[in-house]
Amino acid sequence: MGKLDFIDKELESLKEQGLYIKIRTIxxxxxxxxxxxxxxxxxxxxxxxxxxxxxxxxxEAAKKAIDEFGxxxxxxxxxxxxxxxxxxxxxxxxxxxxxEATIFLQSGFLANQAVIPVLVGPDDVIFxxxxxxxxxxxxxxxxxxxxxxxxxxxxxxxxxxxxxxxxRRRLVVTDGVFSMDGDIAPLREITEVAEKYDLITVxxxxxxxxxxxxxxxxxVDHFGLQGRFDVEIGTxxxxxxxxxxxxxxxxxxxxxxxxxxxxxxxSTGLTPADVAASIAAVGVLEESDELxxxxxxxxxxxxxxxxxxxxxxxxxxxxxxxxxxxxAVKASEFSRKLFAEGVFAQSIGYPTVPKGKARIxxxxxxxxxxxxxxxxxxxxxxxxxxxxxx
Length: 390
Prior knowledge:
Helix content is 43%, strand content 16%. With 390 residues, the protein is an alpha/beta fold.
């Protein structure tokens, strides 16, 4: 028996359980429709909330930046890799978020690994929502701090945990919008508990950027907590349509992160094209909230029709729409049949979601037209009936 033979058994097991991920290949840009595995399909599973991934304004900014700055920064930010573009995006994001400063990083995933281990360590305690994203979980583990999970979106559970666990420093971290269910953290109540027990506050607003708050300024703006919340982590890879991550907060916190955050210290910064496109996205939202309003109109329409047809779409309060099947095998079959009907909507199963909570996760975009949504609804109804989901 070979030392890697276990992989064959593991892969076969994933297929039998309906948990094997079918990775489809996209030909061409992101949009409401695209070519996936050679078929033209309605795109209902990307994070391109505002349609920015193929926006002419962002593309033009990226092209111009390549001509002016080249294709890469050539070094880590702390040696010779900080360009004027990097400083500009940090200023623009800070202004957009109404924060004193921001640090711009390679991705939202890395932002959690940059921030959490710098703020707390082995003598400290982290209070983490039980449904937090994998990047938060990894950031917490890297810190070496004691990790205490509190019940999902439950400030009372957080308070009980804060009473029971002491440490040199204590931090509470939560997603802003939970990516699998689409529900929103009760950030005002979490902030009140944190202030009562002197906890450092961190929120990962990956799915709230460009979605919640005034013109998509995010969950801290949504709850009016500017100046009270310590660190807001964001990403440029979802609603902003590009790539990159950042942390917004006080000038003191950002200065400290730039001295200590390992992804900032030991990995090359973002390319000029990425940074320029991100700046352009901020500029569009500073000028108008039209795309954000269109996103919410589309989401409200799709979700209301899905409910009318009898689908269980969970507790989502945002454009994220989980179509619950429970069984992972059924979810996988649902996704396959939808694709055959011209709709690309990915199935999600364990360990991304708990066992028995498998689903199709639909991601609505401002780029969808009403006819696009009607086409998707028609196909969901057809396949849902065939599989006994409705």
